[in-house]
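Lab notebook, bench 4. The sequencing result for the construct came back, and we need a structural model before the next group meeting so we can plan mutations. Quick request posted to the team channel:

Model the 3D structure of this chain.
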Amino acid sequence: MSKTVQIGNISVGNNQPIYVIAEIGINHNGSVEVAKKMIDGAYIAGCHAVKFQKRDPELCVPPEQRNIVRETPWGLMTYLEYRHRIELDALAYAEI
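Done. Here's the predicted structure in token form:
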């Protein structure tokens, strides 16, 4: 049995062209402008979609690592502060 689904106007599934999703993850470093540039780059490269990662730092950072100070692109800060800094919020996702 051949199964396909529609994503916008593109059929995805058996006997269909490959559907390419770019992984952006947290490479945007919390910047909406960088995220937009990465989306544009994925489009230019021929990707059909992009995927971001969204995490709650309070849940994903173990308590014993939260106050560890580390070097970041913005200087020294705790790991928990860093994780909050790189997360896009709901307004940012709505914009992109």
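The beta strands are 4-7, 10-13, 21-25, 49-52, 69-72, 75-78.
Will bring this to the meeting.
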